[in-house]
Amino acid sequence: MNADEIKKIRTERNPEEETLWRKIAKWVLIVAIILVFIELITKPLRHHWADDYLERGDQYLIQKKYLSAELEYQKSAIFYKTSLAEDRQELANQAQTDVLKLKPFLQSKNISKAIEDFETATAKYTHYDALRVSKELYEKGELQLALVALDNDPDKANDEHISFDKIINKAILARLELSSNAKQKYRE
User: Fold this and answer.
1) How do residues 87-133 score in pLDDT, each as one tens digit?
2) Is the whole model's pTM more than 0.85, yes or no?
3) Rounded CA gap, 31 and 33, in Å?
4) How far is Cα of residue 185 from the mean position of the Cα atoms in its chain?
5) Burial 5-22 (b: 16+ CB within 10 A, else e)
């Protein structure tokens, strides 16, 4: 074999090999087009579902049902990744330990009754008024706000203050344990 024959063999293409590569390229292109088409078609639907989950999460957050809110925000982020869902999920996490973090959110949602409770809890009171307000908030189920109001008591060494502080903290701890158990069961 001379150099011309070797060059000729190298430049000649096998027709079966060529059609195989064309078939593979054609199918890869078809699959890519289908995936892009599915992405474009489902985007508005996924966005709508994400907004629904975000709204449900907001409703749970307003009710201070932090675990439920967090789960709804996670669902929202699954369907349509936005920083709003992640920010709200972070807010739900923070509000579990510091309810005052919710105040700007509640103001943006114009939830006047909740804002009044925040104002009531954070106002400065005498010893007896602080205890009274704290007990009222406790009876409404606003445990964290009751603790905030009790922290505004100028006479924290008083026996009544100390015993009510223990009651509130036990109730908060019990609620947190229930939340953490529910969260663990959900993850399982």
Assistant:
1) 999 999 999 888 999 999 999 999 888 889 889 888 888 888 888 88
2) no
3) 5
4) 18
5) eeeeeeeeeeeeeeeeee
